[in-house]
Amino acid sequence: MIIMKRFFVLICAVILLSQTAFATDYDSMYEAAQPFSTKLYNDIDPFDDEDNIKYAYSPYPLFRTSANLYFKDYNIEPGYSTLTPRKLKGEDYVLFKQGGKVQYIIPIVKKEPTPINFYDANIPKVKQTKMQKFTGTVRKKFYEISKDSMKMEPPKSLLNVDVDVKYIIVTLYYGEDKYTLLFRRTPY
């Protein structure tokens, strides 16, 4: 009986240690992330024109925050922002754009590929009437004939926000990539 109790305690200790070993170290990730050092010319995204030519509307997700987000010296105030992932000077960043102007440039702490069939499992399908389905197929056939008039379909995207003890974790799924951003819940 005593051997069983010791064995049970040993197994519980191993499980607890393995959970803490696999926990993400947000403190070191936050400290390693450095803000973008230079300023963009007139606070304009240099690749914004390419997106406006390719797509009929903005392909980037709209993010609404109702609380202040803190990253190093930045204080992102509540409001709407368009989150645009970009590679600037060899590093990955997310541009927070408001009214077409870049307000903040936040580094990505972790970049991973999006899991296969992630969007199919997490984004609900749009329900259409029979007339909407019919006009959609006619429009698609028309665009196949005259390819110049068709704009590209924007990449699928999804935002997920988690709250930790000290951090707010924003996960941006955009196209084939998953980007993770860290913000402090309170200023220093």
Secondary structure topology:
Elements: H1 2-21, H2 26-32, H3 48-54, E1 62-65, E2 69-71, E3 74-76, E4 79-88, E5 91-98, E6 101-107, E7 110-113, H4 118-122, H5 130-145, E8 157-163, E9 167-174, E10 177-184
Antiparallel strand pairs: 1-4, 2-3, 4-5, 5-6, 7-10, 8-9, 9-10
Explain what the structure shows.
- It is a single chain.
- The protein is 29% helix and 33% strand.
- It is an alpha+beta fold.
- The protein has one domain.
- The strands form 3 sheets. A 4-stranded antiparallel beta sheet has the order 1-4-5-6, with no helix packed on it. A 4-stranded antiparallel beta sheet has the order 7-10-9-8.
- The longest helix has 20 residues, at 2-21.
Which descriptors apply to this entry?
5 helices; globular; four-stranded antiparallel sheet; alpha+beta; 188 residues
Order of strands in the sheet with the most strands?
A: 1-4-5-6
Residue share in β-strands: 25-35%
Specify the number of helices: 5
Low-confidence stretches: 17-22
Give the overall average pLDDT: 82
What order do the SSEs take from the amino end to the carboxyl end, as H and E? HHHEEEEEEEHHEEE
Q: Given the helix and strand composition, which structural class is it?
A: alpha+beta
Q: How would you sum up the major sheet?
A: 4 strands, antiparallel
Q: How far apart lie the N and C ends?
A: 52 Å
Rounded Rg: 22 Å
Helicity, in percent? 25-40%
Q: How many structural domains in the coordinates?
A: 1
**Globular, elongated, flat, extended or rod-shaped: what is the shape?**
globular
Number of strands: 10
